[in-house]
Amino acid sequence: MKYLLIAFLITLISCSYTNQPKETTKVFTLDEVKSSGFKNRGEFQTEFKDSKISIWGFYKGREVAFIMYPSVELAKSSGLSTAKEQTEKIEIVEKNIGHGPNVEKLACRGYKPGVGVAGRGGLKLNSYSQSVLGLNGTLIINKSDIFLTNDEIENNAPPCVRREPLYTHYKIFGNLVIMAEPLTTEDENGTADFVEKISSALPE
């Protein structure tokens, strides 16, 4: 009985340890980021304070972003501020704006292809050719893709119920800020776990 109790405690401690978020003080290079399986598709238009590189792309079919800093210290200071800024979600008080003022990558949530939604009020998007349908029918846009005047609104534009940050979760890992989009089929813990998987895929 004593040995069974000891074995149980060892297993419990081991499981608790493996569930802890992975941390590192490593300074990653761009080649090391790409070696994780990340497929680079573009750069941010915003010049983030103190950053060296800011890119977005896909990892295992989901859009993610990496913002690289010269040091771990800058990632923990300037990078943390940028991560909070780019994932800032606010309560809608004006039209359908549910994001902070400096968020670059936006998503129209609440829209499903071929179905549509109630509550079409607010800003409309321009042509489909300048927008991208992401996972689970999330319409991904940049601020420049949104018509701001009535003359420019198209009747066949998909409804945009809520304009929110595309990325909802982030992690400071070494000299990197890692951000990821959520799935509609997962809760916040699921998205956080996905970000952990990205960090675990980076070379040690």
What does this structure look like?
There is one protein chain. With 204 residues, this protein is α+β, with helices and mostly antiparallel strands. The protein folds into two domains: 24-87 and 167-201, no CATH class; 105-165, no CATH class. The chain contains four helices and nine strands, in the order ααβββαββββββα. It has helices spanning 2-18, 30-34, 72-86, 188-201; strands spanning 39-43, 53-59, 62-68, 105-109, 132-133, 139-142, 162-165, 169-173, 176-180. The strands form two sheets. A five-stranded antiparallel sheet has the order 1-2-3-9-8, sandwiched between helices. Strands 5-6-4-7 form a four-stranded antiparallel sheet, with no helix packed on it. The protein starts with a helix and ends with a helix. The model is unreliable at 12-18, 115-133 and 146-155 (pLDDT under 50).
State mean pLDDT (0 to 100 scale): 78
How many separate domains make up the residues? 2
- Please give the oligomerization state of what you see: single chain
Class by SSE composition: alpha+beta
Number of β-strand runs: 9
Describe the strand arrangement of the main beta sheet, using strand numbers: 1-2-3-9-8
Terminus-to-terminus distance: 40 Å
Q: Helical element count?
A: 4
Low-confidence parts lasting 5 or more residues at pLDDT below 50?
12-18, 115-133, 146-155
Taking Cα atoms only, what radius of gyration do you get, to the nearest Å? 20 Å
| Proportion of helical residues | 25-40%
Describe the largest sheet.
5 strands, antiparallel
Order of helices and strands: HHEEEHEEEEEEH
Strand content: 15-25%
Overall geometry comes to globular
